[in-house]
Amino acid sequence: MGLAYNIYLNSKRIYGCKICKTHLADHDEIISRNFRGQHGKAFLFNSVVNVQLGEAGERNMITGRHVVRDISCRQCKEVVGWKYDRAYESTEKYKEGKYILEQELMCQVS
Amino acid sequence: MEVYAGDTGACSFELDNTNPPPTSPIITAGPPAPSPPHPSSATESTAPPHNPRAEVPQEAPNDPSDPSDRPRKRRRRSSSLHGSQPGNARPSASRQQQPKRRRAEDTTSPDVAHEPIMRLEHTHEHRIRPSTNGSSVNGSSPHTNGSSAKSTETNGYHSNGHAEGAVRQYDASPFYGHDREEVTRILLQSLSDLGYHGAAKHLSSESGYELEIPSVAAFRSAVQQGQWEEAEALLFGHEAVELDGGVLLGNGHGHARRRKSRASFGSQNGYARQGLPLAETADTTQLKFLLRQQKYLELLDSRELNAALNVLRNELTPLKRDIGRLHALSSLMMCQSASDLRIQAEWDGAEGDSRRQLLSEISKFISPSVMIPEHRMATLFSAVQDEQILGCRYHNTTAQPSLYTDHECPAGEFPLQTFKELRNHSDEVWFVEFSHDGGMLATASKDGLVCLYDTRNYSLRHEIREHDRNLSGDTTKGVCYVAFSPDDQYLISCAQNNEFVVINVRDGRRVAHGDHFDYPVTAAAWLPDSETFVIGTQGSRRPLGLYSLRSAAGTSSSSSSVVRNNEIHSWRDPPWDDSGPADNHNSFRITDCAVSPDGSRLVATTIDKRILTYDLRSRAKLAEWAMDDRLTSICFGVDGAQLLINMYEGRVLALSAATGEVVMRYEGASQAEYVIRSRFGGAGDNFVVSGSEDARVYVWRRQTGVLVAALEGHAAGGGAVNAVAWHPREGVFASAGDDRRVRM
């Protein structure tokens, strides 16, 4: 759509899109580093910026069934991770509303 | 008695003793005793009913007696007329009945009611004076502003002075709902202002009204001739000179010592004894200060230093006002010469305008019914016209509407239809702008193109693909801003691939560019000299920079004709220090910037919801305002006094450029995610036009905030209207939308 400026974060360590360097998330927002995605290591973040949400779908993951949707960089439209919409297992509820960003698809923007 | 009894002061009837008895019965009230000075205070306002509908005395008879009695009593000439003169010949008989009838009428005549208290009104039956008094009265639209607003003050005084006798009828009938006396006096003033003095004299003799009572005229001439003591005495009454404070309450006994001071009429709060009635807010010490200051300056001017010193000591200082100014005045004594004095005091000498200015200053404080505010009729006309213009929805001209009819612009003249669509771009169009002279239109789009069109036929002149170089990926191209230089020679285009380019408009060649940014360049604004410009980016290192087209000595880049990265000055907040490795957090990123039309100020909006104002000459920061939400666009109005900003949540606001306060809000547009821009437009900047995310263009009236139109046209559901621009000359505007089109 129309012109939209990116949101910029103020922080010491910022993760950005590998391709277009758009700020995605702040290092301090990491909840857990103990995740694995399709491409390897991934982090669970509290909040991300400059992403667009995709369609929700159910997926079976190592931890169980979840409703997730892909997130992609706003500018270059590359998928960078996903967001948990709903978790069916009660132990996984803490993930609801949080975002996963894959380390492979990100870079550090100082 | 009765009737008139009350009014007392107000209508002192001239009872000239010379007036023979016949008058007395009629006059009643008045003057049983020759000069019962009725406490003037009472009158006025209060008793409309009794207002002596003093009719205007026929001057004539009074005249001879005037000089003599005037001094004695303050009487209004008015009514007495009835009798008084022999001139009564006129309907004296009828007059005799008049009082009674009048009395009855007084109380009952509602329509005469503009109750100006001391209205001199005349019997209704003598409608001798048709409404064609003086100038073009007929046919002009009735004053919508009531002159009745003034009616609470004392009315002008009717002067004596016409020696004619009998023929004057003072027609008391209200003129289309307005007080005849007020209308006539305003007409007299306008005629004199226009220079038709003969007509003015004739009008005043015909109607019996005078523009100014003699004491006011005397005051005016005293000021203009520099007779300060007399002026002061006239203004305040000779006894009032020593008193402080506000307006005095006089009482009717006056003894007019001077020939002219018969002034008094009541004003509601009483009036200075034998002085001119002052307006309610008048401060006598202030007025005295003004008069004496002028006297002092003139004495200094003519180098009579001793006398000036005297004035300073004895007259200015006791007033105990404005000590600072007093000190300044005393320092003026040190001036060596008269011209030096004038420069220092910013005063243009005794012969110059200063006396006239002093007079107009003081006249503001004198009760308006006695000394009509200057150019009253013109003020009334302008007020009516302004109101009509404000109410006119499609007003798109700066021409002064005619006074003959009420003003209403037809909708047909307003650009409401699309007459042309430009489809050159292959992707969303993000920005559109007309050149300052209206000859060219530039559009910027996501596909990296800048297209220049000729506005005569909207044919494509240039397609500028400068930003196609240095592509790192096709997601980062896109030109988000273009700006024409004030002389329309150059065009800056700002792109998302972190650079900006300045192009010569004639041949499309690039003249300068800057690509030392890490982040997209978001906005640019030229200074009026067409050589320097400001660039705003989203990078924190160089968020706002001032660049010049001229190359600094020795820093030309590879191609010698192209100036590169020529940054003159960069604003950062706080100052950049190289020690920090990461982004300087506190630095700001700019989303839009604008330069005021006179080149003195720069405003910029940042990504964290602030508006910063800088002074361009001193490069200092002037102000910073925090707003509620993120801002996407800012621009100045043509006069540099207002700013228009777009915020998220669909708000378009007009702010005052000096204080940052919201002047007006324009509702209707929607904006949630994208950058939408708005502009002032139309003749005299009468309109505000903005894009919105619902594919419509919104137009509002700037002063009133009324929505004039919400124009469809861009593919609905297709996306936002990103930017709009108004043609500087014609009534045309362009809108750029996400449907890849530019509509005119």
Automatic annotation (TrEMBL), chain A:
Q: Name one Pfam family in it.
A: Yippee-Mis18
Q: Which domain of life is it from?
A: Eukaryota
Q: Which InterPro entries match?
A: Yippee (IPR034751), Yippee/Mis18/Cereblon (IPR004910), Yippee_fam (IPR039058)
Q: Where is the Yippee domain?
A: 13-110
Keywords linked to the UniProt accession = Metal-binding, Zinc
Citing just one GO molecular function, the answer is: metal ion binding
Q: Give the record's family classification.
A: Belongs to the yippee family.
Recorded protein name is Protein yippee-like
Query: Which organism is this protein's natural source?
Result: Friedmanniomyces endolithicus
TrEMBL record, chain B:
What keywords are assigned to this protein?
Repeat, WD repeat
Q: What is this protein called?
A: CTLH domain-containing protein
Secretion signal span:
none
Species assigned in the record: Friedmanniomyces endolithicus
Looking at the record's lineage, which domain of life comes first?
A: Eukaryota
| Ranges annotated as biased composition (Polar residues) | 81-97, 130-158
Where is the organism placed in the taxonomic lineage, from the top? Eukaryota, Fungi, Dikarya, Ascomycota, Pezizomycotina
**One Pfam family hit:** LisH_WDR26
Biased region (Basic and acidic residues) positions are 112-124
Q: Where are the WD repeats?
A: 422-463
Q: Cellular component per GO? A: GID complex
- SUPFAM superfamilies xrefs: WD40 repeat-like
Domain CTLH as annotated: residue spans = 212-307
Per its UniProt record, what InterPro entries does this chain match? CTLH_C, WD40/YVTN_repeat-like_dom_sf, WD40_repeat_dom_sf, WD40_rpt, WD_repeat-ST_regulator
